[in-house]
Specification:
heterodimer, A: alpha+beta, two-stranded antiparallel sheet, 24% helix, B: mainly alpha, 4 domains, 18 helices
């Protein structure tokens, strides 16, 4: 089963942390990525701030094509900041791996991947 | 300070502009709003580690801040023995947030920034005030960034605050025209704040980078609140393109390195990528403005792997477009630099002739003119132009640079005379 680890964080906070704390967080990511690379294929992405996002709203009957609006999908306090996609035997394993990042500050959502394509396309 | 404390502080700093703005509207009193927010942060430091972080920290801080403000008012009333004032109706937290989601919050933050931009205040005081009130920087931090003593900054801020709050900007929701006027005013203040940090001279650059970072944060805040305004995308993109060069623009001894000589591999790629994405988004709106055009010019520089690869034809076109929107002598001077690269120094020199009066006290006018004259081989006139620049307000490294240029011109003249003499003999 492929699992994705979704990272939720308040934007602009990482940027304000003291350098040693930033490094500690990045080190945990580096360690996990090294471990995942040793296990096989995985994908990871860090997303830009939501101000760079556009959202496609479903087409209305009169317009016939989706409406593109500036900004993220939902106006929430925590913003989707990045994700991992990992091949795991079980949900427990995915939870254990995600927990290695620590959940002190940010929420992590783990959701089975229904379909993966491109770089993540199953062989 | 523990890791948790640093994180809390970072989170409070992110929330502050919105919370103080909302509380200012609630209490119609800036000082009370600041005090109420400080109290709510203090309560959070005590409560969150024990009881867990709330789902919506902003709503929590706002609700606690509102109650704290009411308490402060009650105490003051009791002290005056005038009985209780009519306290603001204690709205439920949900109602409070619904009100903010309805667009009230973005106008609150914009109003707060706009209050800092009082026309009677010098641009530097406007920025300093915004850093104190909106960004929440300490007086000491602001004084350091502006290179003045904390005591003097304290006095300036007190005066500025008095002036700004005298204006009584109305608390009603502004109409579209008023909102755009405020956005333009506030954008200009943030733009000047970035330039204040960026134009720092040798030795101060590292300290003053703080101003650039705060300007970037304010631009992000504005774009977050007004996500469909192309000029805000342009403004943030411009800052990010500029700031991406912060390491390359200083050499080993801390002297400024001109754009052409910078090591482009040390430009911050993450920043230029984000800037490009923002600029691309802005272009979809097909509503060009000065910030977008300046960002587009910066994008052309960022796209060139080496200085020689720069698409000067495109930059020339962009400056021509910028001049249509902002017909200032400085824009024309920059346009002339691009024209020199595309059509040669003679054409550019003609453009400068019309600027001689307007920019006579501007050192870059004379150094640019001198560079064109040098290219044309008129070393006498070039040397005189460098002399003129030297007579204006310059920093020590600039004076060293100018004297080197003047010596080089004099040498060329001597060589000319020698070879001319040789020709006469033969």
């Amino acid at each position: 089963m492929l699992y994705s680890i979704l990272i939720y964080a308040a934007e602009g906070v990482f940027d304000r942390l003291p350098p040693d704390e930033q490094e500690a967080i990045l080190r945990r990511h580096g360690d996990l990525q090294a471990k995942l690379a040793a296990r096989g294929d995985f994908a990871v992405a860090r997303l830009m701030p939501v101000s760079s996002a556009v959202t496609l709203k479903p087409a209305s009957e009169s317009a016939g094509k989706p409406l593109v609006v500036d900004g993220p999908f939902a106006e929430t306090k925590e913003r989707f900041a990045g994700f991992y996609v990992v091949d795991c035997e079980s949900l427990d394993e995915a939870v254990a791996l995600a927990a290695e990042l620590g959940t002190g500050h940010d929420s992590l959502e783990i959701r089975p991947v229904a379909w993966a394509g491109g770089l993540l396309a199953p062989p | 300070m523990t890791a948790g404390d640093a994180w809390l502080e970072a989170r409070f700093a992110e929330i502050r502009p919105k919370a103080v703005a909302a509380l200012t509207r609630q209490f119609r009193d800036l000082e009370l709003a600041e005090e109420a927010f400080a109290v709510s942060c203090l309560r959070a430091v005590q409560a969150w580690p024990k009881r867990g972080r709330p789902d919506d920290p902003f709503a929590w801080l706002l609700a606690v801040g509102r109650n704290a403000g009411i308490d402060i008012l009650r105490r003051a009333a009791r002290a005056r023995d005038l009985g209780l004032p009519e306290p603001p109706a204690p709205a439920a937290e949900d109602a409070l947030i619904a009100d903010l989601d309805a667009g009230g919050l973005r106008d609150d933050v914009l109003r707060l920034l706009f209050i800092c931009c009082h026309p009677d205040l010098a641009p530097r005081d406007q920025s300093a005030l915004a850093l104190r009130i909106v960004a929440g920087l300490s007086v000491a931090e602001i004084a350091r960034a502006f290179l003045i003593k904390p005591k003097a900054m304290e006095q300036r801020l007190t005066r500025a605050k008095r002036t700004a709050t005298r204006a009584e900007v109305p608390f009603e929701t502004p109409d579209l025209a008023e909102r755009h006027k405020r956005l333009r005013t506030v954008s200009l203040m943030v733009y000047l704040l970035f330039n204040e940090g960026w134009s720092a001279s040798t030795g101060e650059t590292q300290i003053r980078t703080a101003l650039c970072e705060e300007a970037i944060r304010l631009a992000r805040l504005l774009l977050d609140l007004f996500p469909a305004v192309g000029e805000l995308m342009g403004l943030l993109a411009l800052f990010l393109f500029q700031h991406s060069r912060r390491l390359a623009r200083l050499d080993a001894v801390g002297e400024l390195v001109p754009l052409d000589d910078q090591d482009r591999t040390s430009w911050d790629r993450a920043m230029t990528t984000e800037a490009r994405a923002l600029l691309e988004k802005a272009l979809r709106h097909a509503a060009p403005g000065p910030y977008q055009i300046q960002a587009a010019i910066a994008a052309v520089h960022a796209a060139a792997p080496a200085a020689d690869d720069t698409d000067w034809r495109e930059i020339e076109r962009l400056y021509a477009a910028l001049y249509l929107l902002e017909p200032t002598p400085v824009v024309k001077l920059n346009h002339a630099v691009a024209v020199a690269k595309v059509d040669g120094p003679a054409a550019a020199l003609d453009m400068l002739a019309t600027l001689a009066d307007a920019l006579d006290a501007y050192k870059w006018f004379h150094t640019t003119r001198a560079a064109f004259l040098t290219e044309l081989g008129d070393f006498g006139a070039a040397g005189a132009a460098y002399q003129r620049a030297l007579s204006l307000d310059t920093t020590a490294p600039e004076r060293r640079h100018l004297r080197r240029k003047i010596t080089a011109c004099e040498e060329e003249i001597r060589n000319d005379a020698a070879s001319g003499g040789a020709r006469r003999i033969s």
